Amino acid sequence: MTVEQEHFGELDHPPRLLMGPGPINVHPRVLRAMSVQLLGQFDPEFTQYMNQTMALYRSVFETKNRWTFLIDGSSRAAIEAALVSSLTPGDAAVIVSSGRFGLLLAEIAGRCGARITMVEGAWGGVVEPEAIEAAVHRARPRLVACVHGDTSTTMAQPIEAIGGICRRYGALLYVDATATLSGMPVPVDAWGADIVTAGLQKCLGGPSGSAPITISDRAAEHIFKRRHVERGLATAGAGDAVGQRIASNYFDLAMIMDYWSDKRLNHHTEAASMLYAARECARVALEEGLPARFARHRLAGRAVVAGAQAMGLTIYGDPAYKMSHVTAVEIPAAIDGERVRERMRCDFEIEIGTAFGALAGKVWRIGSMGINARKDAVLTTLAALESVLRREGIGFAPGAGVDAALAVYDGATPA
């Protein structure tokens, strides 16, 4: 080893409480699952784990979709797989956006060569269904894409009406539910959504690196029209579909679906430890029960809001559309928001989030998700924020934030 490498010690950072918009602390059961020894990707026991994971996520997504599985990669990997496999160059796409991650959908759809029609709402709000329908009527798109919970603004876009709009005009509906799956209701079948993707690192309480996805039969039929078999795997008589080949190999959903099907047609080497993590995330969520889990996230979010307001802080955005478990707090004038975050991290080992783009330096984002959507984590975070803000010269009654949050918990009714 070089002299420099001799100073690289074993990983040993302090156990920081991650109360930002994600990632969050990983559930101990998920960490234990990730330590299980690997199996070969075609070992019958491993393929049974794959089948179990598909079944578990059907329940988490509240769907009967056969094609419910994992994309190896962060939540953005699943977003890209959904869009590159659905859109061919020249296809029309309507993108619903009122935050950073709606703009990300437009970025990726544009790289797919789609003709994009934006339907934009002001940050801090959502887009009304009437505006979406008007855009769909004009553009007649192949796909409508939207974000359910945009953590950049902490707003949750209502999805219920969009599925009906897409059905009336023959469009596919894609929903990015990265930040909401298992923390807010994501009833895929009731929405009429065709492709929905998520990530583990938010409400599911796992690490980033595996992305659940569910695909309707209608969307699967469209994707399979573009199926292509790699030359090294093709057998005699196995011809490609007639549609244009999906531009990405790694994110080719048709090939990935063949891999997750009974064919087990090799596409990539499944990330075994991440599959173990995703499987356990779903088991934890379903053992708790989705209604109870949603209620726990709502309660924690209400406590964060009450605590922040009791300290004289203003909650950003339209409260009618606020995500239940991520709260944007406006940074008071003359306060250095990054210094507050640094003191939270260095003095209390607690991380809260900053913001992007138009909101950079204007809000903190406090998450209460997964295993961190619990009373002690919320109270500890508020107590630390109180201490830091008093040192910054913000005046309020000591203990006001914690007391307000406690009142929310004391008045809570069973889920």
Q: Mind sketching the topology for me?
A:
Blueprint: E1 17-18, H1 28-34, H2 44-61, E2 67-72, H3 75-86, E3 92-97, H4 100-111, E4 115-120, H5 129-139, E5 143-147, E6 149-150, E7 155-156, H6 160-169, E8 172-176, H7 188-191, E9 195-197, E10 210-215, H8 217-224, H9 253-260, H10 272-288, H11 290-310, E11 326-330, H12 337-348, E12 350-351, E13 363-367, H13 375-391, H14 400-410
Parallel strand pairs: 1-12, 3-4, 3-5, 5-8, 8-9
Antiparallel strand pairs: 2-10, 6-7, 9-10, 11-13
Write structural notes for this entry.
By secondary structure, the chain is α/β, with parallel strands linked by helices. The protein has two domains: 250 residues, 3-Layer(aba) Sandwich (Aspartate Aminotransferase, domain 2), CATH 3.40.640.10; 122 residues, Alpha-Beta Complex (Aspartate Aminotransferase, domain 1), CATH 3.90.1150. It contains 14 helices and 13 strands. The strands form four sheets. The chain has a seven-stranded mixed beta sheet with strand order 2-10-9-8-5-3-4, with helices on both faces. Strands 1-12 form a two-stranded parallel ribbon. Strands 6-7 form a two-stranded antiparallel sheet. α7 links the parallel β8 and β9. α11 packs antiparallel against α14. It is globular and about 75 Å long. The termini are far apart. The mean pLDDT is 95.
